[in-house]
Design brief:
The chain folds into four domains: 120 residues, Response regulator (Rossmann fold), CATH 3.40.50.2300; 117 residues, Transcription Regulator spoIIAA (2-Layer Sandwich); 119 residues, 2-Layer Sandwich (Transcription Regulator spoIIAA), CATH 3.30.750; 47 residues. It is an alpha/beta fold. The strands form six sheets. A five-stranded parallel beta sheet has the order 2-1-3-4-5, sandwiched between helices. Strands 16-17-18-20-19 form a five-stranded mixed β-barrel. The structure holds S-adenosyl-L-homocysteine (SAH) and iron/sulfur cluster. Iron/sulfur cluster binds next to helix 6.
Length: 431
């Protein structure tokens, strides 16, 4: 690895969810403070940071096979450093990972995000002489940025490995979150996504008074420069009227709700230990719609949970239609080490899971298309994040008929769609 401080470059890649991407961004920031400039070219990097995911078997395999392929990079960059972070690193452990992948130099699992700066200091001190902390380019935060407001999870969904690899819930103090929001907004961020595993469970204090998640939404929305605030993922059990009212009060909080249901079958929801049933989930969605006119709702569906029958699966399909979802992330169940459901027989055959996934995707495509078609002729607000394209409040991408510069929010009339991308033009206003 080069020792010249300004000459070192970092290539960072995150597998998995937005939380994993946010962790990698935070760790990249720590490396930037230690003299690393970000590069998008693996070949010119002096260090590679990989954020791994273990939520599903498939996600972990993808991350591990990527790490395996980095062996080649190491051969051509013998001085280079490979740093493996994230949930799969936490699950497998540093010793085992280094045994399987001897070309890996440093392992820092998902519980070490906050202590990463000191971990990296001790690592770097062993490899290169101490260097001045003059950071060249810190990565530009972009128009859309994330804010991790809490880490870990206290829920105990029977299928989920997250509580074991990320540990118990801890909530970041409001002042720290707002400080980060201000810095990122000054650097150009216009949209914030508040991240956490059951993000609406956040609570803390602001100016000496207790503050809940609804208060935090308002505080982030008031940061100068902020145009939009979103959050991911709220837990249905904790999504109450306070949060919906706070969303309604702050026009900068988008009227879009991603509320993971996981299943539409009461029997499966009970086995999943989600803490709610179909009727109460639907009642929560109805409450949110009542308080938030024009709300769009999306969800997560986990299919093929042990013992899931055709009828249970049909309940998930019908839930999507009944709740009026405009999109959904769909996942095939895989047993995860140490979770309660891993003790159940994974009895839904692979081909059946595949078939169910195809059916779910087809329904989601239909629901998205019907929603997007219903927008034709209507005006939507677009936050431009690349010249001439951006995102509507509902999260769908919009292509404008003018090369509007990134960072602006414009009103545009929808003229049609190409797949899931809306086409829109900016109306000429009469002077
Ligand atoms: N905290 C969020 C989800 C985090 S995990 C929530 O409660 O909704 C992201 C998604 O991964 C989940 O919504 C779930 O659908 C999926 N997932 C979790 N464990 C899984 C498993 N064992 N197999 C397949 N998908 C899983
Ligand atoms: Fe996993 Fe449930 Fe926590 Fe979400 S709420 S991270 S699914 S345990």
């Amino acid at each position: 690895m080069k020792t010249h401080p300004a000459g070192r470059k970092l290539f960072a890649h995150a597998f998995g969810c937005q939380m994993s991407a946010a962790d990698v961004a935070e760790m990249s920031g720590a490396l930037a403070k230690r003299g690393f400039a970000l590069t998008s070219e693996l070949d010119e990097a002096d260090a590679v940071l990989v954020g791994t995911c273990t939520v599903r078997d498939h996600a972990e395999h993808r991350a591990l096979s990527y790490i395996g392929r980095l062996r080649e990079w190491k051969t051509s960059h013998p001085e280079g450093a490979i740093i493996v972070a994230g949930c799969a690193a936490e699950r497998i452990g540093g010793g085992e990972l280094k045994r399987r992948f001897p070309h890996v130099d440093l392992v820092a699992g998902s519980k070490s995000v906050e202590s990463f700066p000191s971990i990296v200091d001790s690592f770097l001190s062993k490899r290169a002489p101490a260097e001045p902390k003059t950071s060249p380019a810190v990565s530009a935060s972009g128009i859309s940025a994330t804010l991790t407001i809490m880490r870990g999870c206290d829920a105990a969904c029977s299928y989920c490995i997250v509580p074991s690899v990320r540990g118990p819930e801890s909530h970041r103090p409001a002042g720290e979150i707002l400080g980060e929001a201000r810095l990122k907004a000054e650097a150009g961020a216009r949209e914030f996504t508040l991240l956490g595993q059951a993000v609406n469970g956040w609570h803390g204090a602001f100016e000496g008074r207790p503050a809940g998640f609804g208060d935090l939404l308002g505080l982030v929305a008031s940061v100068p420069g902020v145009e939009r605030v979103r959050f991911m993922s709220p837990h249905p059990l904790r999504f109450d009227e306070t949060v919906a009212r706070a969303m309604a009060e702050h026009p900068k909080v988008v009227p879009a709700l991603h509320l993971p249901a996981q299943s539409g079958s009461d029997r499966i929801l009970a086995l999943m230990r989600r803490g709610y049933d179909r009727a109460s989930y639907l009642a929560t969605v109805a409450m949110a719609r009542r308080l938030l006119p024009g709300l769009t709702v999306t969800t997560d569906i986990l299919l093929g949970f042990p013992t899931e029958t055709e009828a249970d699966f049909a309940d998930s399909l019908s839930l999507l239609s009944e709740m009026g979802a405009v999109s959904a992330f769909c996942f095939k169940y895989s047993p995860r080490q140490g979770t309660p459901s891993s003790l159940l027989c994974d009895d839904v055959p692979r081909e059946v899971k595949e078939e169910r996934l195809v059916l779910l995707h087809a329904l989601v495509a239909e629901l998205s298309a019907a929603y997007l078609d219903s927008l034709v002729g209507r005006e939507v607000s677009v936050l431009v994040d690349e010249p001439g394209t951006g995102r509507a409040a509902d999260g769908f991408r919009v292509r404008l008929d003018e090369p509007v510069l990134p960072g602006r929010v414009v009103s545009a009339v929808v003229s049609g769609r190409a797949g899931n991308i809306l086409m829109a033009h900016i109306p000429r206003r009469k002077a």
